[in-house]
Amino acid sequence: MRFKNLLSLMFITFILISCGHRKRPTGGQKDTVNPEILSIFPDEFSDIKDKDIEVTFSKPIERTTILTGIYIYPSVDRKKFRWDKSILTINILEELEENINYFFSFSQRIKGEHGNELDRNYTFVFANGKLNENKISGNLLFELEEDSDQPIQCTVQASDSTLIFNQIIKGKTYSFENLNNTDHILEAYIDKNKNNKYDYGNEPYFHEYITVGQFNSVDMEMIYSDTLKPEIKSVKVYSNKQIELTLSEIVKDYSDIRIVTADSLEIPVSVEAHSLREDMISIISAELDTFQYYLKIYSLEDNKQNVSNELSILFDGLTVRDSIPPEVLFVYPRNGATIDNLKPVISITFSEIIPLNCFEAQLINSETLEQIPLEIISGHSDIYRLQPGIKLANYSSYTLKIDVTDSSDNQIEEFFKTSFIPIVR
To answer: Distance between CA 234 and CA 172 in Å, rounded?
Structure first.
């Protein structure tokens, strides 16, 4: 009996000890290994005409990240992705440009199934036809010696500022090979504060437009922006009369803008209006055709008195007519405001340049219906500044009515109006 009791006590003790040490499952060790690209087929620099491209990753990939993680230049709009475990097949479903190199970039936006980023950015070059072998190389030079051991974020762009690929470079020299037979733009900066963008004035920067040539030697001078002259970054044509120029930095002035045909005749195209806003210049021209043109800008000056005497950029004309009506983006005084001035300066900002002969404004005393004369201080731009020709009546409400059309005769969708009251105590 005593023996049975002893066995029962041992059994109960064993059960209690087992329960005390029971643990909840941990789910396994966390995956911290970044996926890699192990291989690509066909081999880099191959002719990919009528071929699929197979990319083998080191581990399964979160497939939705492929959509934003792959970038192809020139653009391939019609393509299909197929998966077989860790192998991605890219089916190209359109005719490629003849004798052009295609750049396939795989960025760190691509992630594994456990959220780990691709171990680095990859770029592979293929050809459709003959492989282009143009090259840009040179020395890396630094304004401050302390920057010489820092990685440089470099972007290679087409002449219209379209991205071709990004690359991190480091050392004393650099080389970009197998480029297409066209002009390129090199842009680079050192991301000293690791925020993934260039901080004007605080980080060294380089920007250069490089004309076509099989072998170009260009030293990349990483200097701080207070010694950089402003440059043209890109040009965009919105319609047969609307052009927008993007500059490399904020500028405060320029002397003239001209447009000429890109041939030996250099036939001028009338520039009817232009407006500067920080690093953007909006331009209204006479009607363009489908020719190529040069846009030239003179005495471009930034906020640190750096001046580029003459710059030009090539662009293709459009015959597409602008069909978008203008809008009022901002007005001062705002609707319902009280102001402490009997001759206020009224400011109106439009979504595009409004020619002077397309602008109409009325200022009316809301109580007496008297129309107040208005003087245009500045206009023929996307910003108009007006002022009453006489002092306004104190404590009276006034309504400003605006009716405009743009250079393509698109009329604002409805009369814009705003009301305000001058109160001078």
So the answer is: 29
* 6 within a domain of the structure (yes/no): no
- Which among 164, 156, 137, 154 is positioned nearest to 190, based on CA atoms? 154
Domain's final residue, options 185, 204, 228:
228
**What would the two tokens of residue 81 be?**
């992705």
Burial of 215: CB neighbours in 10 Å, binned 0-12, 13-18, 19+: exposed
pTM value?
A: 0.51
**Domain interval for residue 116:** 34-131
Mean of pLDDT values over 59-75: 94
CA distance 243 to 178: 32
The pLDDT tens digits of the residues spanning 129-142 come to: 999 999 999 999 99
Final residue before a domain boundary, out of 108, 131, 154: 131
**DSSP states along 104-160:** EEE-TT-BBTTSPBPSS-EEEEEEESSPP-EEEEEEEEESSGGGTTS-EEEEEEETT
Residue 1, domain member (yes or no): no
Task: Note whether residue 323 is domain-resident.
Answer: no
255 DSSP 8-state letter: S
Beta bridge partners of 188: 154, 206
Tokens of 21: 């040490």
Do 159 and 175 belong to one domain?
Answer: yes
Q: What angle do CA 248, 254, 255 make, to 5 degrees?
A: 150
The candidate with the shortest Cα–Cα distance to 399, out of 350, 362, 360, is: 362
- pLDDT, tens digit, for every residue of 40-50? 999 999 999 88
Residue 257 near residue 284 (C-beta atoms within 8 A):
no
CA atoms of 358 and 70, how far apart (whole Å): 46
